[in-house]
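Milestone 3.1: sequence recovery, worked example.
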């Protein structure tokens, strides 16, 4: 088990964490239940009280309301634990193997301390609140401009339910989202700092990434986060598909674009680590290739008595070692830390909400081939 010195504990500390602790909402399951009640249950009750079953029905048939006011707040809250666990596991491996060279260990420890300080910064959470309020202000302007859903307006005016969803539901969603994005930025900064350190990598490491292959599995901890954001994105796509016909080709293009954005989001923090693996591969190839050539020519002379392509200046008696395994391993080493071995954990939660929306508007005969192409089957 990793000690506190080998863990980032990215979800601990900070004003929001302290507030939830004081309110008795530190337990994430209870907190998710409370947010679901505030953002989704109360609007339904308000609609039943003011507009009856018809108003509540409009709300319950709105993909966006389900995604932003129920699915996203719950999943974004529950996502904190698996994210924290995945990142702590990665940090623990980095320091306990260790993969950081001794001359760079002080710098790596300093980067970890700075990351812990950033994740508890009140200024950062203040920015998250400001972003959430700005997003709510934009939604208010959109509602006033006539883009409000039918359940949020009555006789051209925003209803009490609409105001509640704007002030509470929308603000909670954007705050939870921006807070986790900020935590991801902290992780990005930490990995970038580690990527500038001297690392103890081995080109023959069985993971095929010099020993850093474990970093490619950290997005698995972000599964619930990915699904939450994808649900909101898919709800926006569904609103478009309600208003106009969307061809299978266009739907596939939208899905591909979204999956590319998701993959970039998770790969960027590992860019410097991937650069280290790329440098390892290049140096290993350059160092081993001459030795492989010399050894193979020696084997050829020993077997045939001479080289097929002789070199008069070449010494006949030389003590050489077979470095072919290192050369072959270096050729197989990949800097793509997100690859076919772990990409499904990134694609599946990002694609599932899109497929649910697609199944509502496209026949299975068209949706099936789309799924196969998207999952690279």
């Amino acid at each position: 088990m990793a000690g506190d010195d080998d863990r980032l504990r990215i979800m601990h500390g900070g004003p929001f964490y302290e507030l939830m602790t004081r309110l008795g909402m530190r337990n994430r399951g209870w907190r998710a239940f409370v947010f679901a009640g505030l953002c989704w249950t109360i609007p339904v009750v308000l609609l039943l009280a003011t507009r009856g079953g018809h108003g509540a029905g409009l709300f319950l048939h709105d993909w966006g309301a389900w995604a932003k006011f129920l699915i996203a707040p719950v999943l974004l809250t529950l996502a904190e634990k698996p994210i924290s666990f995945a990142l702590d596991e990665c940090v623990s491996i980095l320091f306990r193997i260790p993969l950081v060279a001794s001359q760079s260990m002080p710098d790596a420890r300093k980067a970890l301390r700075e990351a812990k300080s950033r994740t508890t910064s009140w200024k950062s959470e203040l920015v998250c609140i400001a972003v959430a309020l700005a997003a709510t202000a934009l939604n208010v302007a959109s509602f006033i401009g006539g883009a409000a859903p039918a359940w949020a307006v009555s006789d051209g005016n925003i209803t009490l339910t609409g105001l509640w969803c704007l002030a509470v539901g929308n603000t909670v969603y954007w705050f939870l989202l921006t807070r986790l994005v900020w935590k991801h930025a902290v992780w990005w900064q930490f990995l970038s700092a580690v990527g500038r350190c001297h690392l103890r990598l081995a080109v023959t490491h069985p993971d095929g990434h010099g020993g850093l292959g474990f970093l490619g599995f950290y997005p698995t901890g972000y599964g619930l986060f990915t699904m939450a954001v994808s649900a909101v994105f898919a709800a926006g796509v569904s609103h478009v598909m309600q208003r106009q016909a969307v061809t299978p080709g266009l739907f596939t293009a939208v899905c591909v674009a979204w999956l590319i954005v998701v993959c970039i989001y998770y790969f960027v923090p590992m860019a410097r680590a991937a650069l280290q693996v790329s440098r390892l591969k290049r140096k290993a190839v350059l160092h081993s290739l001459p030795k492989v050539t010399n050894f193979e020519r020696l084997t050829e002379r020993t077997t045939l008595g001479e080289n097929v392509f002789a070199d008069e200046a070449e010494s006949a008696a030389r003590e050489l070692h077979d470095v072919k395994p290192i050369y072959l391993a270096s050729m197989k080493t990949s800097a793509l830390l997100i690859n076919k071995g772990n990409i499904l954990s990134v694609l599946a939660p990002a694609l599932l909400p899109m497929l649910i929306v697609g199944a509502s508007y496209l026949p299975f005969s068209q949706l099936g081939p789309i799924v196969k192409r998207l999952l690279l089957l």
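The CA atoms of residues 13 and 120 lie 5 Å apart. The two ends are 38 Å apart (CA to CA).
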